[in-house]
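Handout, section 4.2: multi-component inputs.
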Amino acid sequence: MSGASAADVRSILSLPPPGTPSTSTQPPLKKAGSGRKPEGISRELYALIGPSVPSLLHSSKPRLKQKPNLGGSRKVKWERRAFKNVARKDSLELQHWVKADDPEEDYAFAKYNVQSDIYTYSQDEYNRLLEDSEWTKEETDYLFDTVREYDLRWFIIHDRYEYPHGPERSLEDLKERYYSVCRKLVRNRPWPGDEASKSQLLNSFQFDKEREVTRKKYLASLASRTPAQIAEEEALFIEVKRLEQTERRFKKDREELLRTLAGVESGLEGLAVDDDGPMGNGELLKKKKKHGSDWEPMSAGPSVISLGTPMPKKGQQSTKSSVPSPEEDILHCIHRTSAPVPNNLPVTKNAHTPVYLRSVKIPVPKPAGLAPKVIAILAELGINHLKLVMPTKENCERLESLLDAASALVDLKRAVDRVEQEISTTRERIDSSKSTSASVAGDTAGTPMDVDQDETGTERDADGEKEDESVRAESVVSMRSAWGRKSSRRSMSISSVDTSTPVATRATKRMKK
Amino acid sequence: MAERVRQRGISIFRPIVYGNTATVLTQEERNALSTPDHTHKWTVAVRSAASAPDSDIVGGADDLSYFIKRVTFKLHETYANPTRNVDKPPFEVSETGWGEFDIQIRITFVPESGEKAISFFHHLKLHPWTATTEPEIPPLEEALKIGPVHSWQYDEIVFNDPFQSFLQTLLAHPPTPLPKTKRRPIPFHATNPGSLEASKGGVPEFTALMEKEEAERLDVAKQAVIAETDKWRNILIEKEKELKKLKKQLEA
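Output:
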């Protein structure tokens, strides 16, 4: 027995068998001649480890008493240089020491001044996307201003959040509103990058209020346990462990009994000994809890087994329809549009999309009213909206999203025009009201402007043209509605556009007086 | 019966090119014609998108007759029997002429596809490409020097939910992929005037690079549009703020 193992060791180490002593004595001699004690190893150590010294020791001698090398002979020149921090808005100039040969660069720490990009939205976007029964636009604006001011530091935001006459908002309320607005904006604005980065950004704006509240509740309850509760919990845990162990022992015993008495393997899977250790048992335990039933080994058995069984079934199914692999699909130019529906469904003629040329599906700018402007924008960028050089699926999609982005831009510009128009109208009205109030200062003192101003105005202008009066009446209506309800802004803007010129002329007329 | 079952959830396409190549006739060639006023000879064709190596035509690496039964070219009425049916490859018509016109191309598919024919137009291009959209026709001698004129459009024929038997046919004929690199000139396309220089000097070839290049062009344009949108949105928000302030002022 021992002889055989010695031979094994020899063969493993590829040493010659002991029967040939002439060769076995030769190598040690040779080694003794060639392998002198290397420097840096004590004689005693060398005697112990012999010539099989790790090669590392050879190369690095310990040089403990050497002087440290302090950067050589060259002197480094430092100089005090003024710098500006790019991250600062004021042009404060400070000085710091830099190596003289370092190039002039932007302040290296400026990049750490990260500004979070807080979204803003226009009135139109708010009306279209962001309406919420719980929130007014003013409060949303206030929230966004606060978020901007405190740079997304939610606890501070929540602390400082004080919207006059607004309902009490919890931290989660604020977060939910903010993130839902961001999500809606991201989803609805044209996106410059690809879909992956968009969904990534959307994920970063994900906020589940319910979950957050539950999480905090759990944490609170976890932190507020009394020592007695903690002790009880621990005791219970130990109890469970003990039960598990007895369970296992019991199963093993039964298995053995069956084997010795009946002489058969018990074919009951439920009795199989679990060797997974505590983890596996924990899983089993969970399962038990989920079932809501007491410990039933027979019912737990199949559920464990079933984990293994679906594989062959799936295999049978997949052999019928060949497994799609992405490479093959590219080779054969296949796009899988959706999960294949069972084949036995009757195909109605209408459901089928007939064959087409890809380029036919290049979309037209919508809506038609904006089309010329959209086309003009694209033309400016050197893009033909009708034709592509390579109308592949991806490029057609790109063109489509480009068209969407362009029409959004056109929309936006129109909104700007509209607001500009409104601004100029309002300005004129302010001017006119100023002159009115200046001329009738005595009458209007202390009375609300919106009604009285115009009444006095009409009185004063009673000798003016009739047309002018009717127009002004309209403008009164529009002004009242503007102050009364925000929602009717659109209608006001239209009517106010009409009135703008007469108001102006009226103002100048009054000036003449 | 099983043959007539559609494979649902699949859209399978075949890349094709269609277009024409035109050469100016020399005086001797013109004299030999029965119609001496014809100045060009041209070939209009429908082919697979990839070019065969060392071939002197655009595209045509694969035989498309496994899914195309017939290609009909409808020429100008002044030609003798203007509707030309081509039932076997190569799907092309060669003619001589003096003017450019729109050719209607109609592709009929093999019966097992169960698909109706599709038709589209190609503008027969005889005169050399210019960077400007306004066509200026150089004298014939110059055009002769410039060499053959190529006008080709890439496109994809998309079959949705094909019949299983037809799908098998298609799978049996995977198209030659477009070359990854540029080996020959780029086919000129009026949509991308920048490619004029790169299109010169020989028989052009469609490559996968062209797709990428166009994708980049579209992306750049989109980014420009979005940058502009952001700018205008900020303007809008500023203006709205201003308006609000003014309104308050008016109210006060």
